[in-house]
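quick q for whoever's on today - can somebody do inverse folding on this one?? i tried earlier but teh output was garbage lol. C-alpha cells:
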C-alpha cells in the first residue's frame, strides 16, 4: 500500500470515528421525538447557521459546481448567484416567522399550541386541516424527492472512494451509507447538527486552501498548467473556442441558473434548522453567519473549477472529480487525506440531514398521525431510527442502479421541493387569508410540474429551461386560483395575527 493510500485511509478512519463518537455523545440526550427530530429546539446561532450550510451545500458544492464550471465555463456561475440570493432570502423572509409559527399555530387535532415538528405537521396546523390530506400529501412529496436527493450524495460518495482508494463505486456506497446511518441512528438531530459544524469548517477550509496552492504551483513553474483564455472561461474545457459571451448571457442560462435560488424557500432539511433554532431572536445572527459562509464558499468553488482548467493539460474523464484530482496532484498525502475527508464531509452532512427529515415524515406524519397517535416518546424515537435505515436502504438502491450525475439528481429533487413547498411556505407566512385549498393545489401543482417538465423537456421540448421555472409559476397560479374555493377560519386568522406580532418583535 502506497504512503498516499495509508494517509488517506488513516484520515478517513479518524473522521469516521469522530462522527460516530458525536452520535454516541448525544445518544442519551435523545429521549423524545422532539429531541430526535429538532433537538428540542435548542440550537444556538452558530450551530443553526453552520448546520444549515453543511446540510445544504453537499457534494454539489465540492464536486458538482466545480465540475460544471470546469466543463461548461462561466454560464454555470448563474446557479451560484441564484443560490446566494435565494439562501439569503430564506433566512430573512422565512426563518424567524417559521420558527414562531411552528410553535404557536393551534393544533388542528387537539387544540392548544401545536409545537409542529415537521413541515407536514406545520401545514396541517397552519391551515387547520382536520382531514389529514395536507399532511399526507406533503409527507409523500418529501419521501419521494428525498430518495433522489440522498441518492445523489451516495453517488458522490462512491465516486470519491473510487478515486481515492480504487474501490468499486458500489462497495463505497454501501460503506459510506452505513456510517451515515450509524451516527444519525444514534443521535438524531443533535448528532447531525453538531457534526455539521465540523463538516462546514472542513469544507470551507478545503475550498480556500486548494486554489491557493494550485495557483502558486502554476505561477512558480512555467511547465505546470497553461493560461486561462476567453474560450475556456466562457465555455469550459470542451469549448474548443466555440463559446462566446452571448452563451453565458443567454436568457435561458440566466433564468435557469437564478431559478435555483427559489428552491431554498422549500427545502425541508434547511427549514428544519429554522424550526430547531433556540428562538426567533437568534435568527438575525445565524443569518449573518450562514449567508457569509455560503457566499464565500460558492465563490471559492467557482475558483476551484477555473483552477482545474488552468492546472490540467488534458481534459479529465470525469469533470466532477476536478477538486479531488487537484488535491491528489498538489498535496502532501496526509494533507490530501484531510482535504479529501472534507469532500466526504460535504456528502455526509447533507445525506444525514435528509435521512432525518425523511424518517421524520414516516414517523411523525405517518406512524404517529395515522396509526398510533398516543405512542410513547421512546417508541417514536425507535420508529424514527428504523425509518432512517429504511430510507437509506431505498436511496442506496437508487444510487446503485443508476448512472445519473450528481447535478442531475440534485436538480431533480431541488426543483421538486422548491416548487412543491416554496411558494406554499412563503405565502403561508405572509398571507392572512390563505387556506387549505390553495396550499394543497400549490403543493400538488408545483411538485407534479417539476417531475413532468424534467422528463418532457429532456425527451420532447429540449429548451434547456430548468424545471423550477415552470413549476413555480404553476404552483403560484394554483394557490391563488384554488384559494377561492376555501376560507380562512377565525382561528387561523387569530393565529396569524399572534405570530405576526411576535415575529416582528423578534426581528
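ok took a stab at it. sequence:
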Amino acid at each position: 500500500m502506497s504512503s498516499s493510500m495509508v494517509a488517506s485511509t488513516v484520515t478517513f478512519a479518524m473522521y469516521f470515528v469522530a462522527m460516530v463518537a458525536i452520535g454516541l455523545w448525544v445518544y442519551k440526550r435523545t429521549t423524545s421525538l422532539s429531541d430526535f427530530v429538532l433537538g428540542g429546539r435548542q440550537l444556538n446561532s452558530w450551530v443553526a447557521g453552520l448546520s444549515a450550510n453543511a446540510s445544504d451545500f453537499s457534494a454539489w458544492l465540492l464536486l458538482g459546481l466545480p465540475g460544471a464550471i470546469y466543463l461548461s465555463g462561466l454560464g454555470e456561475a448563474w446557479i451560484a448567484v441564484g443560490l446566494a440570493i435565494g439562501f439569503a432570502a430564506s433566512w430573512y423572509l422565512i426563518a424567524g416567522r417559521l420558527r414562531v409559527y411552528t410553535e404557536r399555530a393551534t393544533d388542528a387535532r387537539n387544540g392548544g399550541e401545536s409545537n409542529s415538528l415537521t413541515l407536514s405537521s406545520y401545514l396541517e396546523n397552519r391551515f387547520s386541516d382536520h382531514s389529514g390530506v395536507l399532511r399526507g400529501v406533503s409527507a409523500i412529496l418529501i419521501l419521494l424527492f428525498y430518495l433522489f436527493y440522498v441518492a445523489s450524495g451516495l453517488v458522490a460518495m462512491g465516486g470519491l472512494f473510487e478515486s481515492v482508494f480504487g474501490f468499486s463505486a458500489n462497495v463505497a456506497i454501501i460503506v459510506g451509507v452505513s456510517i451515515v446511518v450509524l451516527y444519525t441512528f444514534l443521535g438524531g438531530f443533535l448528532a447531525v447538527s453538531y457534526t455539521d459544524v465540523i463538516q462546514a469548517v472542513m469544507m470551507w477550509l478545503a475550498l480556500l486552501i486548494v486554489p491557493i496552492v494550485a495557483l502558486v504551483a502554476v505561477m512558480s513553474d512555467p511547465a505546470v498548467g497553461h493560461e486561462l483564455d476567453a474560450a475556456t472561461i466562457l465555455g469550459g474545457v470542451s469549448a474548443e473556442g466555440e463559446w462566446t459571451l452571448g452563451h453565458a448571457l443567454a436568457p435561458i442560462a440566466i433564468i435557469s441558473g437564478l431559478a435555483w435560488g427559489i428552491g431554498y424557500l422549500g427545502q425541508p432539511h434547511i427549514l428544519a434548522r429554522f424550526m430547531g433554532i433556540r428562538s426567533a431572536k437568534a435568527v438575525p445572527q445565524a443569518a449573518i453567519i450562514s449567508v457569509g459562509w455560503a457566499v464565500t464558499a460558492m465563490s471559492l468553488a467557482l475558483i476551484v473549477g477555473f483552477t482545474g482548467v488552468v492546472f490540467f493539460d488534458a481534459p479529465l474523464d470525469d469533470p466532477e472529480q476536478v477538486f479531488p484530482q487537484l488535491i491528489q496532484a498538489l498535496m502532501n498525502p496526509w494533507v490530501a487525506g484531510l482535504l479529501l475527508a472534507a469532500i466526504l464531509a460535504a456528502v455526509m452532512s447533507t445525506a444525514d440531514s435528509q435521512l432525518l427529515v425523511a424518517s421524520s415524515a414516516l414517523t411523525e406524519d405517518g406512524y404517529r398521525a395515522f396509526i398510533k397517535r398516543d405512542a410513547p416518546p421512546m417508541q417514536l424515537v425507535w420508529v424514527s431510527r428504523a425509518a432512517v435505515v429504511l430510507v437509506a436502504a431505498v436511496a442506496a438502491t437508487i444510487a446503485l442502479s443508476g448512472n445519473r450525475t450528481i447535478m442531475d439528481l440534485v436538480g431533480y429533487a431541488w426543483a421538486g421541493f422548491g416548487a412543491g413547498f416554496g411558494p406554499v411556505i412563503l405565502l403561508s407566512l405572509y398571507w392572512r387569508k390563505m387556506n387549505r385549498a390553495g396550499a394543497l393545489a400549490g403543493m400538488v401543482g408545483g411538485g407534479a410540474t417539476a417531475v413532468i417538465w424534467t422528463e418532457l423537456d429532456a425527451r420532447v421540448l429540449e429548451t434547456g429551461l430548468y424545471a423550477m421555472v415552470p413549476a413555480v409559476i404553476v404552483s403560484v397560479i394554483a394557490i391563488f386560483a384554488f384559494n377561492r374555493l376555501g376560507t380562512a377560519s377565525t382561528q387561523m386568522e387569530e393565529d396569524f395575527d399572534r405570530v405576526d406580532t411576535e415575529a416582528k418583535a423578534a426581528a
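fwiw The first helix runs from residue 3 to 27. also The mean pLDDT is 82. so keep that in mind when u check it
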